[in-house]
């Protein structure tokens, strides 16, 4: 299957992408991983992307599209893939369609993870991270530390990252609504969108996704 995964920040896209890709035996292709791999391997595209990032500028769509195209042409992606974070806007969605059409391929489904905005803010703004080890993550509501502000694992101070503040989360949601949400309408016009609730336990969300993707694959 060839799937695009969309949803607002805090919808759990990265977590669900990993589970779904494993269950479907297809590679999980995320924009973040593409950038990190190209930059660490010092590819021409990685050097180009880094030059924009170092200057504090957004990486142009053409560079992101070229990275995605290169990754989708790798042998392990010939039988399908799950795209996470790409396409991010309408221009990238059109470019993806053109790429696939040129190869005689098409998308099977666009999985839209739906989460109420207040829940997104609660999920992200409630995160607390240990200053000693960023892998130690707690949540004021869903996974509180035994002692407020203190890491259960190492005793380090727990703090809220700037990226997790409510103001920042709401700004990220605005960007999502403006730039990324329009691709849902673009794909709805093609009959590709399947929407599921991303509320509940991780395995419950995965089960819902597998069920709707199975139906999409039967169409």
From TrEMBL:
Pathway(s) served: Purine metabolism; AMP biosynthesis via salvage pathway; AMP from ADP: step 1/1
Region feature NMP, mapped onto this chain: 30-59
SUPFAM superfamilies membership: P-loop containing nucleoside triphosphate hydrolases
Binding site for ATP: 10-15, 127, 137-138, 200
Residues annotated to bind AMP: 31, 36, 57-59, 85-88, 92, 161, 172
Pfam family name, one: ADK
Keyword Cytoplasm attached: yes
InterPro entries: Adenyl_kin_sub, Adenylat/UMP-CMP_kin, Adenylat_kinase_CS, Adenylate_kinase_lid-dom, P-loop_NTPase
Domain Adenylate kinase active site lid: 127-163
Cellular compartments annotated: Cytoplasm
Transmembrane region(s): none
GO MF assignments: AMP kinase activity
Record family assignment: Belongs to the adenylate kinase family.
Reported function: Catalyzes the reversible transfer of the terminal phosphate group between ATP and AMP. Plays an important role in cellular energy homeostasis and in adenine nucleotide metabolism.
Name of the protein in question: Adenylate kinase
Native source species: Streptomyces macrolidinus
């Amino acid at each position: 299957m060839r799937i695009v995964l969309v949803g607002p920040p805090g919808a759990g896209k990265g977590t669900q992408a990993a589970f779904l890709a494993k269950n479907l035996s297809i590679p999980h292709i995320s924009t973040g991983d593409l950038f990190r791999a190209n930059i660490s391997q010092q590819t021409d595209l990685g050097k180009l992307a880094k030059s924009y990032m170092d200057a504090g500028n957004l990486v142009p769509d053409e560079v992101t599209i070229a990275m995605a195209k290169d990754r989708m042409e790798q042998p392990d992606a010939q039988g399908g893939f799950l795209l996470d974070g790409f396409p991010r806007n309408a221009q990238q969605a059109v470019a993806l369609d053109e790429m696939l059409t040129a190869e005689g391929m098409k998308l099977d489904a666009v999985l839209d993870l739906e989460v109420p905005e207040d829940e997104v803010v609660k999920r992200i703004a409630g995160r607390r991270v240990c200053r000693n080890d960023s892998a130690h993550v707690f949540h004021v509501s869903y996974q509180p530390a035994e002692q407020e502000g203190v890491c259960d694992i190492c005793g380090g101070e727990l703090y809220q990252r700037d990226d997790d503040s409510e103001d920042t989360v709401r700004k990220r949601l605005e960007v999502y609504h403006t730039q990324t949400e329009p691709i849902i309408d673009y794909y709805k016009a093609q009959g590709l969108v399947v929407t599921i609730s991303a509320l509940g336990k991780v395995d419950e969300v995965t089960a819902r996704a597998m069920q709707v993707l199975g139906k999409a694959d039967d169409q």
